[in-house]
Predict the 3D structure of the following.
Amino acid sequence: MAVIAPPKQIAKFSMASLATKGRGLPSRLIIHGTEGVGKTTIGAFAPKPVFVMTRGETGLETLMDAGQLPGIPHFPEAQSFQEVMAMLDAVLKDEHDYKTLVIDTMNGVERLCHEMVCEREYNGDWGKKGFTNFMCGFEVSLADIERFLMKLDAIREQRKMSIIGLCHTLVKSFKNPEGPDYDRYQAKMHDKTWNIIKAWADIVLFVNYDVTVDADAGSKKGKGYGGATRIMYTQRRASFDAKNRHGLPEEIEMGNSGREAWANFVNAMKKKG
């Protein structure tokens, strides 16, 4: 006969339990943008960072080998979702004085999660009778993605560490319920995963080059100009997702380096409101 565990004791509350201010926790920051725009270097200049790199995401090591970054503490490439979670456990439980946890990348974590779920739930079958059957595998994976985010929250709350998640983007067609569809930048992951991560984050930055496009009236194509200035966007536009809960300006210039980009972001945080 199965033993049923007794229910956990429910905390007692009264009106004296009410609070009138937050707990002063560090921020949860998502940075998404195209390859090579500088996402990794921004994370590398956050306060006392430690990196969790997913399989194939070796940009940090390349930048260090090229002398573009100093030695940044990092775990070996995580080859599985289980390894990602084990690394997070180490950050949560081991003694250290790191101040920022950088996940490079969040879409890499999603890919490893899908691999685990496909093997666990569908015996490794990626076909229409397995993981992709009516998109079931993507739905099942969301519970593990939420477990991953809960672990990040535990690190944030118990170790008082900021969390930075880096994401690649791609251009996807947006089905517009109020008019014609159009293309926009979106994080390179399943829509439902991205929606959960956006809701979880305090700040979502979209980073890209500032390009001006000239086009004749009625033309579907134009000519791009500029592209030398890199911008961190903090508010959503039709062409990309962004948000912030800190009253940041709509645009923050990245400058000429990751160090300058992080300094500009910190200064904007100080000037908010």
Summary: The two ends are 60 Å apart (CA to CA). Residues 25-208+235-247 form a domain with the Rossmann fold fold (CATH 3.40.50). The CA atoms of residues 96 and 264 lie 27 Å apart. The helical segments are 39-44, 59-65, 81-93, 106-122, 136-159, 191-200, 258-271.
